Amino acid sequence: MSKRLDPRNWASWRPFGLGLRKPNNYLELIKAFRSVKGNRRYAWRILTRGTCDGCALGTKGMRDWTMREVHLCNIRLRLLPLNTMPALDVSVLADADRLAGKRSAELRELGRLPYPMLRRAGEPGFTRVSWDEALRVAAGGLRDARFGAYLTSRGMPNENYYAAQKAVRALGTNNVDNAARICHSPSTVALKDTIGAAATTCSYQDWIGSDLIVFIGSNPSNNQPVAMKYLYHAKKAGTRIAMVNAYREPGMERYWVPSNAESALFGTKITDEFFGVHQGGDIGFLNGVLKHLIENDWIDEKFVAGHTTGFEEARRAVSEQSWEVLEALSGSTRDEMLRLARMLGEARSAVLVWSMGITQHTHGEDNVRAIVNLALARGFVGRDGCGLMPIRGHSGVQGGAEMGAYATGLPGGLPVTPENAAKFSGMWGFEVPSSPGLTATDMIDAAHARELDALVSSGGNFLEVLPDPGYCREALSRLKLRVHIDIVLSSQMLVPAEGDVLLLPAQTRYEMAGGVTETSTERRVIFSPEVEGPRIGEAWPEWKIFTELAAATRPEISRLVRFTGTPAIREEIERAVPFYEGIAGLRRFGDSVQYGGRHLCPGGRFPTPDGRGGFSAVDPPALERPDGAFSVATRRGKQFNSMVHERMDGFNGAMREAVLMSPYDADRLGLPDGAPVELRAGERSYRGKVLRAPLVPGNLQVHWPEGNVLLDETRRSPQARIPDYNAVVTVRAL
């Protein structure tokens, strides 16, 4: 990799991009410094001694295993106040109606939850109770009840996931799910089916020096900012970068890496080639690329013959799909598909990266299968500079399913079957249910139908993350017991219920005695030690909350579910999840173990029954859009998950109410920037203001979660049960 300045990659000759539209990362540092006033020493210790609780790149302190440079992104800076703020005044909870109109950011800014709080049915608000009283109320509502448990990914360590799913199963149900369901569950399903491993096959260092990186429905400039430093170094090493997306993301066009002198001063051109596709049209485009690879003899025939199955079926499927159909579905052209096919065909190595632009569709599993087909066709698996990477947006999400906090999976990702249930029954000493449980969306459906009595929600906010907030609100109100475990307030806590509502205060990962671990996108299990600093009221670690709930509900098995601390949990994880070997030995800051090593499927040896990777015959989905209608997708702005940090996105100037529209469509409809419009999807509607953006015509984007009011809660993918975060709408000027 060259260390010389390279003006060919510069984004601008203006020093620091002065006068250009871009985020001000140095201003973020100032804001972070101000936001932790009174706790700056503690904040500094978190930044330098803790493992990042932001996206799933997994920096230890401000460094990682990819390069010897300092890393610090604005996502992590924006999370600092949550980890350092003082306790809220619990008197504000005496009247929940006074808080009901506050935005989520305003609720968080009130401070940390310090004590267990209880709201009885019909009462105006919450009163403080002891932990003994809280556990007694919870046990009374959970005993012999139909209930489910949901865990978010915000900073959730492996120890919490593991203990929680074990406690829930000790209570006789597999109704436990986590945020991976609404992020990358189609990736889990499709990768397991095709290559036998439900995780990224490579490491971040494979980006640097690879011939080609292709981002498909993914925008790391917003969601994984530290990754932009990797891309800067990849460009310096000669890597070409392509992007397949409906929107030409400004942050992926050019980016100023604040901790690198050259990029901070002149910026970096990131994307070399952009391929515009319709939202939902990825299969049409990717199948067209595969069709070109086959027709031009750009297939790695030796790899395909020696290490894969199903190629003839996949070849036959795409040969029967006409170019006219693929073009209409994708919104692209045969020539554009050829352009990417040639890039893949000429590349000796490539990494294919995707995110929720691929997964959050009713056909999300097939989207991923179409990507896998391209990697197998060129042999881009199991060697340096190559891989399949479903990049994760949250530090806790990779470990969630692997720890077994999944309605359809047990620890180690084992499917819920009688044989696997018997295995864990023998290990744990109590009977484990043998049939899959309710997924997160199924739990809301069951609550709405009054077929669920209680819900335990650790973090998260269904009113903001799932389609149709009104439907979710009604479902939450019909429960006889809700238990909310969190560090701060959220709007779903304030929804009145037909029964009791408990708020239980949790510790952050940095407060947990014995330290904890997270699993990064590259399968690296990283230790994060307890960080010395202030502690909040009577907050407990979530692993203890779940195990004590189980012990209070079923006292006869209390000894089977309790742990003495996080080291004991890690010892049990190592026994329950064999590929996590080494987790029990992680004790000090910076300790890590990467399961599977740098590459999964080394040398083309796949962890499948026959040792081969499997091609898929992927049929294009039937996407119908009436004349004059648009496809609308939900996007992220200046936020982390549903936590909105700023009303304006520094990359494109979009306010939260923006309706991103192509200039072609805006001109056709006579809509200038700022024009108020209404989007309608049947009886669902959303009002916003037009903002012209480099989108493929026929497509719109609105911010998530504000745009969730347009989404149909019944639309989900067939296997992963992920909600569809897209809709077909009409546009009316107001």
Automatic annotation (TrEMBL):
InterPro entries referenced in this protein's UniProt entry, alphabetically: Mopterin_OxRdtase, Mopterin_OxRdtse_a_bac, Prok_molybdopt-oxidoreductase
Pfam families per the UniProt record, alphabetical: Molybdopterin
Domain Molybdopterin oxidoreductase intervals: 112-551
Protein name: FdhF/YdeP family oxidoreductase
